[in-house]
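Page 42, continued from yesterday. The earlier attempt failed because a stray header line got pasted into the input along with the sequence. Redoing it now with the clean sequence only.
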Amino acid sequence: MNTKTLVLTAMMSGGILFSCSESKLLDQVNPNQASTATFWKTSDDAIKGVNAAYSAMQDRRFSLWIRFLTDLSSDEGYSQSPWTDLGNISKFIVTDYNIAMNIEPFQAAYQGIYRTNQVLENVPNINMDATLKKRVVAEAKVIRAYFYYNMANIWGNVPLVLTSQTLGDRPAQNTQAQVFEQVIKDCQEAAADLPESYTGQDVGRLHKYSAIALMGKAYMQQRKWVEATAAFKQIIDQTPTRFDLVPDFKDNFTTLLENNKESLFEIQYYDENESKVGGAVNYDVAGGSESSERAQFFGLRNTTGFNKGGWCDGQPTKWLLNEFLKEKDKNGNKDYRLDYTMFYSGSSLKTHGYSYEDLTKLAAGSDYLPQRDRFWIKYTAYYQSTDSYFSGINDRVIRLADVYLLYAEALNEQGQTTAGIPFANKVRTRVNMKELPLTMTQAAFREQLRHDRVVELAGETQRFWDMKRYGILGPELAGPDAGKKPANESDFDTDFSTFVKGKSELYPIPLYETDANPNIKQNPNW
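This time it went through. C-alpha cells are written below.
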C-alpha cells in the first residue's frame, strides 16, 4: 500500500444497503467482472480486498459530511451556507432525514462495513502466509470498528451487521452500548495480530496501536475510566521511542510530515485529481476519490479579487476564538496554535500570500470583516499559492496529543489528579504554554483539560464527542444572545438555542432505512 494511494478494486466498491431496490430490470452483469467465485483466491486478492476497505474511509460521502455532523455541531463551528438545509445542521434542525449530509455518511459507513465483512469472511479461507493473513483480517476489524465508533456517536442505536448482507436482510437494531462493545471487541482482537509498525509502501496502514487508541476512545465515551487508562498506557509506554509529539504543532496538518511519530490513526489522502479552484471537478467515479474535500468546504471564502479559497460552508465560532485568547504563553504571547487553527483579524499568517487585512480591502466590506469573519486554517494548504478542491492532506484521526489529554482525563476522574497533570503539561510545553501546577484540585484540572482539548484539537472532529462525554450539551450554551446574535458575533454558540435535550444528542436515522427495515426504530423525539 503506497503511503498516499490505495489499490482500489471495482468489485469491492459496492455494498448492500438496507434501502436498496430489490429489482432493477435494466441491471446487466459484466461477464468480465470479478466475482466472489473467482476472487479471494490469492494473497494479492486479500491485499486488494482490504485496500478497498481502506478506501471506504476516504469516501467523500463519509469523510466530508462527518465534519458537518461533528465540528459544526459542536460549539467550535457554525455555518453561513446559502444551502439552508446544510446551514441548519449546525442548529440541530433536520427536516429531511434523507438529506445528503445525513443519509450519505450512513450509507457510506455500511458500504465500508460490507467491504470489511467480505475480508473477514473470505481471507481466512485463502492459502497464504499465515502472518499476512492475520494482519489483513486485523486491519479489516479496525476499519469496521472505526465506522461503528462514529456511527455510535452520531446515530446511536444502529444495526450491527457483522456478515455480508443479502437483499432480503432486515438486521435488528442494537443499542449504542452494544455498538461500542463491538468496537472494543474488534480492536482487542485486531491488536493481537497487527504489527507495531510498518516500513516502505505499507507505512500508513493501521497498526497495533491504532487499534488500542480507538479502543481507548470507545471506553472514554462510556466513561469507563479504568479500562481507558489501561488502553492508553500501552501507547504511553511506547513513548518517546515509538511515539512522540512532533516539535512543531502545525506539522500535524499539512502534507509535509505525514504519518509522523505523533500519528496513531491516519486516513491517507492523495490530490491525484489536482483540480485547483476554478478548474474542472473530476470525482474519479471509477475508482472513488482518494482526496479530501475539507478545504473546499471549510477553507477561506472566495471574494472579490480572491479565488484561491472555497465555499466556506463551515467556520469557527467567536466562542472558539475566545478560548484561544484565555491564556498567554510563557512569554506573554497569544497561544501559538491559534494562527494555525483559524484565520482571523489579527492573524500573523499570510494565507495563499494574503493577510487578513489584504482580504478585507479586496472584499470591500462584504466579507473578511474584523470581529465577524473567521475561517479555518487547519487542514488547508494555506502555505501554498492556492488550495485544491481535492486536497491530499491526510486526516489525523487519532494523534498522541489527543491520547495524552484523554489519559490525563481518565486519571483525573479516578482521583489521580497529580498523576494526570504531567501529561497535560507535555501538550502545553510544546507550544510554550505555562505548566500546570501539581497542586490543582480535581475540579480545577477537569475544567482546564476541557479548555486544553479545545485549543489543541479544534476542528478535528473531537469536540462534539467530548461535549457528549462531559454531559454539557444543551440550549443553555446559546447564552443570553440566543435569538439576538448569530454564532459568529456572539461570545456564545447561539446555534444551540434550537438544541433539544433528549433529541439533539443524536441525529435522525435516515428515513429510507426506517421505511425499508421495520426492525429499525427512529431515534428519540425525531
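Notes: Residues 130-154 form the longest helix (25 residues).
Reminder to self: strip header lines before submitting.
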